[in-house]
Amino acid sequence: MSVQPIPKEYTTVTPYLILNDAAKAIAFYLDALGATEAMRLADPSGKVMHAEIRINGSPIMLADEFPEMGFKSPMTIGGSPVSLHLYVEDVDAFVDRAVKAGATLTRPVANQFYGERSGGFEDPFGHVWHIATRVEDLSPEEMQTRFEAAMKSGTPQ
After folding, report:
1. 11 lies in some domain
2. CDD domains, from UniProt (predicted)?
3. CA 21 to chain centre
4. Are 62 and 47 in contact (CB under 8 A)?
5. Number of domains into which the chain is organized
6. Is 48 helix (H, G, I), strand (E, B) or coil?
């Protein structure tokens, strides 16, 4: 049997989150986002060297920060330029659950011109999440027309 170059349980791009308290973050993601923990490698003090969770089957790797190696959390550097986009079955319930568990709402859930109902939050560890449920299938032309109308009205999301 030959080794697969891309493991079957992964996509070709997997987010890797650096956190200031990975163990606490894993607990939050399990509770607030319905994640499952796939594995965890921790040193004797409990510091997470590498862990993996899955949200709706999508893998996310994470670890505690190691500033001396250049691995810093958003809390250490004052935010992150990277956000995560997650499709779910019920965006309203998902965002509500995350906010009740301690996330900060950054964008209320609403229908968008591009055919999604979406909203967003920042988790307690500084990572920003965009959550969406597709509600319409649009052609690129329909999306462009709606985008132009939203720009004219001053309400693009």
Report:
1. no
2. VOC_like
3. 17
4. no
5. 1
6. strand
Residue 46 CB contacts under 8 Å (≥ 6 apart), including other chains: 23
Full residue range of the structural domain in which residue 98 is found = 16-153
Residue 3 falls inside a structural domain: no
End-to-end CA distance of the chain: 49
pLDDT tens sequence across 79-132:
998 999 999 999 999 999 999 999 999 999 999 999 999 999 999 999 999 999
**Helix count (H) and strand count (E) of the chain?**
4, 8
Asked whether 37 and 43 are in contact (CB, 8 A), the reply is no
Q: How far apart are CA 128 and CA 40, in angstroms?
A: 23
* Helix 91-100, helix 22-33: angle, nearest 10: 140
Domain assignment present for residue 128? The answer is: yes
- Its pTM stands at 0.89
Euclidean distance between CA atoms 91 and 57, whole angstroms: 16
| Beta strand 58-64 pairing with 16-19 | parallel
Tracing tokens 């965890």 back to the chain, one arrives at: 40
What CATH number has the domain bearing residue 35?
Answer: 3.10.180.10
- Tracing tokens 């027309």 back to the chain, one arrives at 145
